[in-house]
């Protein structure tokens, strides 16, 4: 009986992981969370973008950090096509061959469902993404200076 319970528990965690992976494997969600045509994102814009795009509030509370990439979709998509393989914790991603201007919005205050953000200074960095089978970015795994 004990092994049956352990098997059910493992199956439960595997199915939860698959659900989370499939939700994140969406180019439209990547665009909504990370792409912007805005020239500048300041503190006020961080707050409005996080709220308007509905990315501030997660199941566990306010999202701690979100990074916006100031570039057109076609340029960001090129990372999946011509990016260099990059490994993080035994998972392979693609690192962009060019730097993008990025702005991160970091959580500064949290009052229940009210999330307030501060913009970090925009910087030029490489992006690291996971891609779907159609060579479209679906997850921003990180940003790098080198």
From TrEMBL:
Organism: Naja naja
UniProt-listed PROSITE patterns: RNASE_PANCREATIC
Domain Ribonuclease A-domain: 23-144
Similarity comment text for this entry: Belongs to the pancreatic ribonuclease family.
Primary residence: secreted
Source organism, top-level taxon: Eukaryota
UniProtKB keywords: Disulfide bond, Endonuclease, Hydrolase, Nuclease, Secreted, Signal
Lineage: Eukaryota, Metazoa, Chordata, Craniata, Vertebrata
GO cellular component terms, semicolon-separated: extracellular region
SUPFAM superfamilies, per the entry: RNase A-like (SSF54076)
Subcellular compartments: Secreted
Leader sequence residues: 1-24
GO biological process: one example: defense response to Gram-positive bacterium
Pfam family, one: RnaseA
The protein's name in its UniProt record: Ribonuclease A-domain domain-containing protein
Gene Ontology molecular function terms on file: endonuclease activity; hydrolase activity; nucleic acid binding; RNA nuclease activity
